[in-house]
Amino acid sequence: VIAELIESLTRVFVDSVSNSFYPVPQEAIGMGSAFEGWSPRDWDGVYRVLVPLNPPPGHAFHLELNSAGQVADRTFNVCVELVCTWEKEQVEEKPLCFLHHSRKELRRKQKRSLLETLCTSSYLDVEKTSHWFCHLVRSSWLQVPQWHSWYVVFQPCSRSCRLELAKAGEPDVEMLFGVRRGDSDIFVSSQPTKATITASTAWAETYAVAEAKFFRHIARQLPCESLHLKCLQLFTCILRGTGFSSSTWKTVVMHVLTTVPLSRWHRRAFARRLWDIMAYLDRCLQLTHLRHFVLGNERLPAEISLPPAMRGVVPPNLFEHLARDPAAHREARQAYGRLRFR
């Protein structure tokens, strides 16, 4: 139901911006556990979708690395550049071009470039984009076929557009927006990372779309397409409180899916697969090393597209904090012992 609603909204968005020079929304992509088919017990009840933004005519997006921190926690600036629209058009009447038309003519036609509307300096501003996007949703809502079935409350957010669907039992919807890195499944998005993002021009790199694509790829090949999700739900819900986050369990399960032959993931082997996941976590704790699943993973399915430079990087160690802190490592080992007992 949520996916159909967002699909209808996106179609309306494209019509709304067709004669403007604002970013062009593309088909929304479901992100996170709700769309992957599992949810931890502490799920916040929010369906999150990523709406990719393409540059409008006469503009181009270029990503510039903004942070020098951890590879898995990078931010980028989205540089907006004006490009000539005359070169691509072979018609007698030239279209509007921000590089060739005079300012006077542009003002007369009441046309402003993206640089003048949603940018700070020459960079796409997350907060300005969020404000514009929320206004677009509000003004477009009555054009959505399903509008009469929902009562919507628009919640103010500085880096996303959040809708509270006032219908019994329905969760909220948070629409994030992002820019694709080339032709890959990696995006920079408006969702902040764990580290506090202060600059409104900073966009966080996200691997959520690649991970969701991996889960769909796996489900098509397993004898029991949901067995891996049942394993993940058991560790994140039933065994909650054993000291490991849902993101850690998700990473471990994804690694096990690429090491244990997929033909072995059938219902009768449920207990065996649980122990495989436990054994993998045990080895990672002994070595204080858990590899990032997307970055530098040579076992990633070929259908998941990464920027060329990303496949060759050394996978970040998600357990690096355990290697640096012996007390935290001991606590994690004790948590594993309690988990094994349970």
Automatic annotation (TrEMBL):
It comes from the Eukaryota. PANTHER family: CELL FATE DETERMINING PROTEIN MAB21-RELATED (PTHR10656), INOSITOL 1,4,5-TRISPHOSPHATE RECEPTOR-INTERACTING PROTEIN-LIKE 1 (PTHR10656:SF40). GO terms for cellular component: membrane. It comes from Melospiza melodia (Song sparrow). This is IPIL1 protein. InterPro entries: ITPRIP-like, MAB21L/cGLR.
